[in-house]
Design brief:
The protein is 45% helix and 17% strand. The radius of gyration is 27 Å and the shape is flat. It has 2 domains: 26 residues, no CATH class; 244 residues, Beta Polymerase, domain 2 (2-Layer Sandwich). A 5-stranded mixed beta sheet has the order 3-4-7-6-5. It is of the alpha+beta class and 315 residues long. The chain contains 12 helices and 7 strands. The longest helix has 25 residues.
């Protein structure tokens, strides 16, 4: 302020940019200064490992060994649970009930619908924490917040913050089988008093599926080998046969894109027919639309006939 109460910037006629005052010399800030927060932001997985080490004292080799132990325990506990036993033993009944309400059309895409229970590798797991902490974190350099919790995802909490360490995927034949099966899994969780929530995925990149998360508490050893109760979630995915085919075909493409920094505007691919995302992403959306049409036509048709009777009619 000057002697009559006017701020200095009001009297600064030559350069109105913000300035620092040092020894009575006016020094404007340079507007081209680089935002240090962005220069410190890890751009790839190796830089992320260094960020974890420098900022949070995470020893990656030790964390990897600990993860292999704990992830195996999480899977084993779920395999032995009454919840998984009930789900496994109910698959045939789910199919019978679905057929009874859908003119005899089957629920499952195959005759052996029980999928494998998979454990996420540490490489994939660490990449997911990279996406959550950095790439998908719109408030960087502040800690992320999602529907599971808030704060940096680190070894002290990452077994509760990452909800698909153990996962599986049920493949149904038709579009409406996704919601039907999700409802059945909800009921099984209620029977066993298991906390759960269902998330219906409909992503920009053309991914459609239902994810049922069943959560239960486990006594797990920490990095210091003290045991604590940790809420762990199991991811039960449900998708259609056609979406499953596309997912396997494009898995490497999706993985590569997820690991890239989000520097571009997310809408650009929607207006660039030559971009890789345009073809692959819209394929998923078109397929979802076609599957809805198939179900609509199916429900207006007669019940399915055995293959041998169809061959006889056309002989």
């Amino acid at each position: 302020m000057d002697g009559i109460g006017w701020p200095l910037y009001a009297l600064h006629k030559i350069d109105r940019r913000p300035f620092l005052r040092s020894n009575s010399v006016v020094r404007p800030f340079a507007f081209h200064q680089v935002d240090r927060r962005m220069t410190d932001k890890p751009q790839d997985i190796e830089a992320y490992k260094k960020w974890l080490s420098d900022n949070h004292k995470v020893e990656i080799a030790q964390a990897a060994k600990h993860y292999e132990l704990i992830s195996g325990m999480i899977r084993m506990k779920f395999v032995e649970s009454e919840l998984w036993t009930t789900i496994r033993d109910s698959l045939q009944q789910f199919d019978s009930d679905y057929q009874a309400g859908h003119n005899g059309f089957p629920l499952w895409a195959s005759t052996f619908p029980l999928p494998d229970l998979l454990t996420k590798s540490f490489t994939s797991f660490l990449e997911k924490t990279f996406r959550r902490n950095v790439l998908d974190n719109i408030k960087w350099d502040k800690a992320p917040k999602d529907r599971i919790g808030s704060g940096w995802i680190l070894p002290s909490n990452w077994f509760s913050r990452i909800n698909d360490i153990t996962r599986t995927c049920f493949v149904v034949k038709y579009f409406d089988g996704v919601q039907y099966l999700a409802t059945q899994l909800e009921q099984v969780c209620r029977i066993h008093n298991t906390p759960f929530h269902v998330h219906y995925e409909a992503r920009d990149e053309g991914y459609y599926a239902a994810h049922v998360y069943a959560t239960y508490n486990l006594s797990l050893p920490g990095l210091d080998w003290t045991t604590e109760e940790v809420p762990c979630s199991i991811e039960l995915q449900i998708t259609t046969q056609l979406q499953d085919v596309i997912r396997h075909m494009l898995h490497s493409h999706y993985r590569t894109r997820r690991m890239q920094s989000h520097s571009e505007h997310p809408w650009k691919w929607k207006w660039n027919s030559k971009s890789p995302e345009f073809a692959t992403n819209y394929m998923g959306h078109i397929l979802h639309y076609l599957e809805g049409l198939i179900v609509d036509i199916r429900d207006k048709s007669t019940p399915p006939q055995p293959l041998e009777s169809i061959d006889h009619e056309h002989a």
